[in-house]
Design a protein that fits this description.
Elements: H1 6-10, E1 17-19, H2 44-51, E2 59-61, H3 77-80, H4 83-93, H5 97-107
Antiparallel strand pairs: 1-2
Length: about 110
C-alpha cells in the first residue's frame, strides 16, 4: 500500500492520470467514471475531492495519458514462480542492475 499526499502529487505538472482504488485492497477503481481518465487526467480539484477523506491508496493509469508511463507489477504468482528473480537476472545481464536497484529503493514497499 502506498501512503502518499495525493492532492499534492496530482497538483503539479507533469503528472500521471490517477484514480482512487477501492479501500478494500482490490485494484478496482472507486469512481464510476474511471474509464474517462484513460484519455484525460483528473483535475487537481477532482483529486482533492477523492482524497480529502483520508484515502491512502493510489491508482495510476498508465499509457499515453500519463506520458507513456509503464508499470511492471511483479507480485503474487509471479513472485512465487520466481519470475521476479529471473527479471532481476535479465536486468543485470543487460547492464541495468543499477537502474533496477535505484527503482526498487524508491518504489518497492
Amino acid at each position: 500500500m502506498i501512503d502518499v499526499r495525493v492532492a499534492e502529487f496530482g497538483a503539479h505538472e507533469p503528472r500521471p492520470s490517477v484514480v482512487p482504488p477501492r479501500e478494500d485492497g482490490s485494484k478496482r477503481p472507486d469512481v464510476d467514471s474511471s474509464k474517462e481518465f484513460r484519455s484525460r487526467r483528473p483535475s487537481g480539484a477532482q483529486i482533492g475531492s477523492w482524497y480529502g477523506n483520508g484515502r491512502t491508496r493510489l491508482g495510476v493509469v498508465c499509457g499515453v495519458v500519463s506520458g507513456e508511463l509503464e508499470v511492471i507489477d511483479l507480485e503474487g504468482r509471479a513472485d512465487a514462480e520466481g519470475i521476479h528473480d529471473r527479471y532481476r537476472e535479465l536486468a543485470e545481464a543487460a547492464g541495468l542492475g543499477d537502474v533496477l536497484s535505484r527503482i526498487r529503493q524508491i518504489w518497492a514497499t
